[in-house]
Amino acid sequence: MTALAFDEAGFTYPGAAAPALAQCTFAAEAGAITWLTGPLGAGTSTALLLAAGLAPRHTGGHRSGAVRTLGVDPAEPGAPAILGGRVALVLSSPAAQLSGIAETVAQEVAFAPANLGWPRERIHSAVDRAMEALGIAHLAARDPSTLSGGEMQRVVLAAMLVLRPALWLLDEPTSALDSAGRALLHDILRSEAARGAAVVVASEDADGLYAVADRLVVLSGGCAVLDGAPQDLLRGDAVWDAGVGSTTIGTLARVAGVDAPRPLTVDEGVARWTR
Amino acid sequence: MTLAPGALAARAHPFTPLVVTAAIAVAALAVPGPGPALALYALTLVLVVTTGTGQAALRALVPLAPLWFFLFLLHGVLGEGGRVTVEGISLSRDGLALATTQAARLGAIATASLAMYAGFSPSRFVDAVAEREWSFSVAYLVVATLLALPRFRARAAVILEAQRSRGLRLRGSPLSRIRALGPITFPLLLGALAEVDERGFALETRCAAGSARRTALAPPLDTTADRLVRWLAAGAGMAAVAWRVVG
Question: What ipTM score was computed for the predicted complex, to two decimals?
Answer without folding.
Answer: 0.84
